[in-house]
Amino acid sequence: MTDNRETCLSSERLYEGKMIRVRKDTVQLPNGHQSCREVVEHPGAVAVLAVTQDDRVLLVRQFRYPVGLPLRELPAGKLEPGEDPGLAAIRELREETGYTALNWRKLSTFYTAPGFSDEVMHLYLATDLIEGESDPDDDEFVECESISRDEIVKGLESGLFEDAKTLVGLLLFLRA
Amino acid sequence: MTDNRETCLSSERLYEGKMIRVRKDTVQLPNGHQSCREVVEHPGAVAVLAVTQDDRVLLVRQFRYPVGLPLRELPAGKLEPGEDPGLAAIRELREETGYTALNWRKLSTFYTAPGFSDEVMHLYLATDLIEGESDPDDDEFVECESISRDEIVKGLESGLFEDAKTLVGLLLFLRA
Q: What is the tens place of the pLDDT at every residue in A6-59?
């Protein structure tokens, strides 16, 4: 495979925010032409496929402001600066669901939107769960529920799951 | 399920770009507190799971500047202003691979990164393919290949596929 790399010629910082940073780069294309690339820099995120002893998957429901809807998702969250993804996964599962897990395994790492963002998602499998008290941030409003294998199959057909990481995690679960 | 809606109090436009627009909103949370939400507005995109008569899936390889790597992906692209997603899928498949398809079916619609963006991905299944000449944009460098069911299974284990829409599409393919 040829690389067809695009080379940065100059970079303009457009926004430095709380969660994201935005820049616009002028790049040289493989054919020598110049073009612009808009890039949303993101710290990266983790998601957790947490499976109970009776083969149910934990989901969280929360309002997602960018899309204006409440979504059913795998427990997930962004990395804190310098945070190890595995430790972030443990933290997010506990904060959002109250559960801790005795067994952790990395399932997949993928880019969520490589056309305009560098966000990378680290997806973990958590099993041997121990129930506890959830500990959301003061300004976080998350409801935890669980769903059976059959309900997942039906939910995939009816469009119940509306975001990419949740679809990836649940589809991987159904292969196991 | 409670809605836990967040209400926009004010909105600041930060960037109007070629592909994305960025805004920062001040919102009221369900508990009455105020917070900020950074939102990357995106026109939406389409991806195509194109399956040949001999059960192979078409992939395209292209350099993705935001992540600094060439990726193997389902044929995909963003919507033009006002464009119908189904017609965009037909267009992108032809531009990137040269193929047209006699059979089209919507497989899934999902948000790629609902924590910070409204990008919605429309995923289509295309079958009864007819080979033709690809017609990439002047400044687009895409190589088409195809992959068998066995290679997809192995590739999932080895981390060959590195973006969310491609994982969703290939995992749905393996269920069929």
A: 999 999 999 999 899 999 999 999 999 999 999 999 999 999 999 999 999 999
Complex ipTM, two decimals?
Answer: 0.96
Query: Which chain A residue shows the shortest CA-CA distance from B117?
Result: A66
Residue A167 and residue A115 share a domain: yes
Test A31 with B141 for CB contact under 8 angstroms: yes
| Residue A22 and residue A55 share a domain | no
Say yes or no to pLDDT of B92 above 90: yes
CA torsion B4→B8→B14→B17, rounded to 10°? Answer: 70
Give the structural domain span for B71: 45-104+117-175
Enter the pTM of the model. 0.96
Domain-located, residue B112: no
Q: Give helix B164-175 / helix B149-158 axis angle, nearest 10°.
A: 130
Same-domain pairing of A24 and A63: no
Residue A129 tokens, joined = 């769960």
Q: Using a CB-CB distance cutoff of 8 angstroms, which residues of chain B are in contact with residue A28?
A: none
**pLDDT at res. A2:** 61
